[in-house]
Amino acid sequence: MSSRDKPLPVSSSFAPDFPAEQVRLFREVLELMNARGVRYVVSGAFALQQHTGIWRNTKDLDLFLPPEDVAAALGELERDNFETQVVDPVWLAKAHRGEYFVDLITGMSNGVVTVDASWVERAIPAEIMGVPTRALAAEELFASKLFVTRRERFDGADLCHIIYGTQGKLDWQRVVELVGAEHWELLLWAILLFAYVYPAYSDYVPVALWADLIERLQRSVEGPDRNALFRGSLIDPNMFAIDVEEWGLRNLSEEHRERRRPKIAC
Predict the structure, then answer these.
(1) pTM to 2 decimals?
(2) Contacting residues for 86 by C-beta, under 8 A, at least 6 apart
(3) Domain over 20-222 is classified CATH 2.60.40.10
(4) N or C: which end of the chain has fewer CB within 10 A?
(5) How far is CA 226 from CA 220, 221, 230, 235, in A?
């Protein structure tokens, strides 16, 4: 069966039947990070489950870390007989043993969102695979998924489920800060998607936030900035490749990636 023929995942509240080897490995990693005092927070499928109740079968354990802490984490994993590599110094390192992986993530691949110490400090207590640890707070989880909008990977449903699962009880000011002044349209898009999916619960998003973002939109469509830069590469560099490679528009993704500091040490 090719990857194209594989059935797509279906959302469910039922916990997957994780293989014993996977459970042991993930437990070992979490206990190791705890014992060595590495600053990290669990993200990915396990953080999503904490905030929404949705389980996902995954072979990866996603850990978010500040970029400056990745080298120490990789060193501990290497001493524990993991094979490690820096896949992309902008945002991703990996460790694996057998068929299971640990992803060490420091932000988004487009260079816009960067993990810092506050992401770890704001994490919530959680027990994952029987190990006391900390999971990404809902606000940071939301922000981490906002740019996952590619043709082959789209986290729009996760964004909706985070708002619905928390009943909108997010620190929305924190969300606005994480999104940044340059990308408010994406936040508006995300809450519009939520309002479309869950029209009975549009009030889970504060009226003041709706009003602010809609007012910004009104101003921008009434008087568009003709000097505003093309941002398609921040969304999907493959689908918008023609704009950069053939039509001569700027590649903001590469510019953001180049400016990202600090990068993961190779």
Answers:
(1) 0.95
(2) 70, 74, 92, 93, 264, 265, 266
(3) no
(4) N
(5) 11, 11, 10, 20
